[in-house]
Write a structure and sequence with these properties.
Elements: H1 4-28, H2 32-36, H3 38-49, H4 57-83, E1 90-91, E2 94-95, H5 96-123, H6 126-136
Antiparallel strand pairs: 1-2
Helix pairs in contact: 1-3, 3-4, 4-5
């Protein structure tokens, strides 16, 4: 019989596969929404995979709050970039869709991703587990 964590991981992998298929079809049929909006959803699923094995509900909840806040902000950035595809607005000499990704999404992912990884790794006890493994060696 499969454990609860194993079933959750299977669902996340199935969801990720479905999003990859949707993104692929979007590329084949030139549907920008299918490509733009599946990107943050794939990131969200991968981040949710990182907490599946966590047994402590308090640690898991605190990590999920940070992860979901990050995912919502990420989705908003990509949605604004999608909206900007058909706008004539220019920011810093770039079309708004490109400018949102270059000026806002890129720094957001660069700075916030590292901080979020460090914080959630500490909250989930991953850092302590690595330290314990190194102490045994």
């Amino acid at each position: 019989m499969l454990s609860k964590n194993s079933k959750a991981m299977d669902v996340l992998v199935l969801g990720f596969t479905a999003l990859l298929v949707i993104a692929f079809l979007g590329m084949m049929w030139n549907l920008p929404a299918a490509m733009f909006l599946t990107t943050p959803l794939m990131v969200a699923l991968l981040l949710n995979m990182s907490v599946v094995e966590c047994q402590d509900p308090a640690r898991r909840r605190s990590a999920l709050i940070v992860i979901h806040t990050y995912n919502v902000l990420s989705f908003i950035l990509w949605a604004v970039a999608l909206w900007g595809l058909h706008q004539d607005l220019v920011i810093g000499g770039l079309p708004i869709s490109t400018a949102v990704i270059l000026y806002f999404a890129w720094p957001f992912y660069t700075v916030v991703s590292g901080l979020m990884y460090a914080a959630t790794s500490k909250w989930l006890g991953l850092v302590d587990a690595v330290d314990a493994d190194e102490a045994r060696v």
